[in-house]
Amino acid sequence: MDNNSFEEKSANEIRRQKVQNFHMNINNDDLAVGERYRQLENLDVEAPETISSYSDDDVKKQMKRSSRLHIKAKRKEQKKERKYIDRQNKRRFRIIWWTSVALAGLTVALFLMVGVGDMLAMNRSEDGYATIAIPENPSLSDVSRVLADKGVIREPGFFELYAKLTKNEDFSQGDYKIKTNMDYEAIINYLGSMQNRTDTIKVTITEGMNVQEIAAYLVKKGALSSPDHFLELCKSDYFDEDYEFVKHDNDDKRYYKLEGYLFPDTYECYKNERAELTITRMLDNFEYRTTYDQNVDGYSKAVNVSKRIKDIKDFDLDQILTIASVIQAEAASVEDMYNVSSVIHNRLASDADEGVLRLDLDSTKYYPYRKRSDIPDDIRKGYKSTYNTYSIKGLPPGPICNPGMQAILAAIYPNDTDYLYFCHAKDGTPYYAYDLSEHEYNLSLAGLI
Known about the structure:
Elements: H1 3-29, H2 31-42, H3 56-119, E1 129-134, H4 140-149, H5 156-165, E2 174-179, H6 184-192, E3 200-204, H7 211-221, H8 228-235, E4 266-270, H9 275-291, H10 305-312, H11 317-330, H12 334-349, H13 377-380, H14 405-412, E5 421-424, E6 430-433, H15 436-445
């Protein structure tokens, strides 16, 4: 045997030995491969019936195939495990969810049960009273807190919810004496009525006060917190729809269109009440006093201002009020009012031949201010009032103050005189004159020159 034949024989022997060892490993040691073949059959993967090659490449392919099968099996096992975990998580979530729902439902039910009981005053049976003070510009929480602090309610949160659902969130400042066993609806209605307030203030508007003076007085008495809104309303058209008599053709020429219409009287106001309410109270009184029969000192029969103005036909209501406001500002007494009225009427009817062209009334010079020193510093220099009867002909654009009933009647029924001038001494003594020379003499008597 030559050397080459020996080498071939040795190589073949070695190869047979490897194949034999491979078969032994498959049959005896690697039973998992057969199992994987069966898995392949179940997965509709065609498994090889026999190993057709005993080469190293076949072994590598078989090992790679076995690895892929192992990975697939592993993934399948992981997927099954994830599904199990997901089922467990869902079960836990459902338990937590329904537990939370049950607790929330129990809480809501308890809240509703306690709240409804308080709403119906079922847990507040004592027939007592509480004095409460609602602050200025109150919020709903302010009101509920005050009511709870005083024992009028027990569940402020439920009261706020009820007020919002029933659209009753707006409350006004005021002091009240309220029962502690009222249900929510009764409480809201009670606080909504101004007549139930106990913080009332009596104010007396005297004849001749103008709008600015009235505003300052109301603030001083505590009926208003500030004069600003009151004055703005007196300039505005806010009340035109409710009161026909406050509308005029020359409203744009007036400082305050409500001047003359805030009837002087004693009123019962509330502490820091809304300016709209204060003005409405005065306009209602004016309408009543000028529309219906009134008993007036000096008149044997009841007088009706509106009817009497219609009877004379020379002036309308606004003109009479303007004349009356000047009379109120100029006259020293009720008797003097009728003579001052005669001077104004005579001057309005006079002509240039009588040497009288204007009313020349001191009370109109600085309106809406009472005197020059009342004019603000920044406008005092060069200030000219459009109501100044020394510079305009006829009546001012509107009243200069708020006259009382005697001044109004004096404006309607002046004394029958020929007077064209009047003046007053410092003690109020009146002097009247027919012409300028007599007037100058009266001025000296009065100590005015």
